[in-house]
Amino acid sequence: MPLQDNYKQKAKICYKFVWAKYREEGMRINEHPILEFNQKEKVKFTLDGKELEGYKGEPIASALVAAGIKILSRSIKYHRPRGFFCAIGKCSACLMKVNGVPNIRTCVTKLEEGMKVETQKGKGDFN
Asked: Does domain 41-118 have CATH number 3.10.20.440?
């Protein structure tokens, strides 16, 4: 077996192990030596009609990733998947339609009870 194939096989095993661990733990960081997490009040919101839960005040994108949602949007030209990237509102990877308003940067928008989040198609519209 060539060295490259062996490396790829080990990488796949490691990837599966890491994602399995995250799934078991709910995809959330609960303890951190520097940051504090204020995860008190759970709220319900929807993504494309599917009901999900998150913590009030956390970024929408964080709640989506914690729920196992990896694809937040798609590139405009080639429709390639885009996930949680910069987390500071400077890129366009997390643009989604929130409560009917397109092009909302979900990485910096705080989650509230009953929010209606939708996967945005293309450049976004108000329909």
From this structure: yes
Question: How far from chain centre, in Å, is Cα 40?
Answer: 20
Euclidean distance between CA atoms 62 and 28, whole angstroms:
9
Per-residue DSSP letter, 65: H
Model confidence over 57-90: pLDDT tens digits? 889 998 999 898 989 998 888 889 998 888 888 8
**What DSSP string runs through 81-120?**
EE-S--SSS-SSTTEEEETTEEEEETTTSBP-TT-EEEPP
Rg of the chain in Å (alpha carbons): 17
Domain ranges of the chain: 41-118
- Using CB atoms within 10 Å of the CB of residue 33, give its burial: 0 to 12 exposed, 13 to 18 middle, 19+ buried: exposed
- What is the H or E stretch that residue 28 is in? none
